[in-house]
């Protein structure tokens, strides 16, 4: 059997653009990936594939290979669980309907959070709109940017640590499917599901460990082990789960431009793991330079 040539390393499988809560356009992100010396990058905006076309158009000029992806919002009780979805068919009806539902729920939830913040601080919905690319998946980062623009927080991260923290009393969850439905929808769309940063000491981590067998049965491919927010003990647990269930392990930056300290290529994925991931996908294909 002839093997396909591996995609160029270094490989960073988790990044965001302005199509969700990153600060760069998809084209700027691809240029930044070239600048950072990456060979391959995955664009994984929250609950949308709207950035794929622009990112793909930048492949020939930047020379960086693109893995089209998405970070799907799922939920266990009140905590959110993020699922990376690679090489999906962007038009698969089940996943498309679900991501539309999530984006609408995120919008309403952001409006409600801002209305509640506005009772105590001088900020309005128009401030958030001014920080958001039309059509983008709205999240707390856009509210954070509005708080910064209003002088109510120094940086995005400060806003997250303050007014936007769940302890501050303005936090609201939003609708998202269960992780099991997430895996099913991603596989039905021909994509490859990988749990994003699954060991960050969130309340969902423990619940996740107990459902991992079911997720594997439904087609879970891997765990994002090398991510700055995974704790050392959490990584040990992920390593054990990977051995027990035969799950692949990935690493990535979760780059959000200037919105987060995460730098492109700070964690990377083994080319052999990406080979297997690509072999497991039928929804769409990598874009090669
Ligand atoms: P949300 O999903 O709306 O509750 O917002 C959480 C999202 O904010 C996650 O996807 C984080 O990656 C993102 N985020 C972006 N910038 C920051 C930051 N500076 N600090 C914390 N989270 C951030
Ligand atoms: Fe994000
Ligand atoms: Fe995430
Ligand atoms: Zn992310």
**Structural class, please?**
alpha/beta
Basic shape: globular
Characterize the largest beta sheet: strand count, sense, and whether it forms a barrel. 7 strands, mixed
**First and last CA, distance:** 24 Å
Strand order of the largest sheet: 1-2-3-4-5-6-7
Question: Helical segment tally?
Answer: 11
Ligands bound, unique:
adenosine monophosphate, fe (iii) ion, zinc ion
Overall mean confidence score, pLDDT: 96
- Rg, Cα atoms, Å: 18 Å
How much helicity do the residues have? 25-40%
Run of helices and strands: EHEHHEEHHHHHEHEHEH
Would you write up a description of this structure?
The chain is an alpha/beta fold. It is 40% helix and 13% strand. The protein contains eleven helices and seven strands. A seven-stranded mixed sheet has the order 1-2-3-4-5-6-7. The radius of gyration is 18 Å and the shape is globular. Residues 16, 21, 46, 256 line the site of one fe (iii) ion. One fe (iii) ion binds at residues 16, 21, 46, 256.
Quick summary:
It is built from eleven helices and seven strands. It has 289 residues and is of the alpha/beta class.
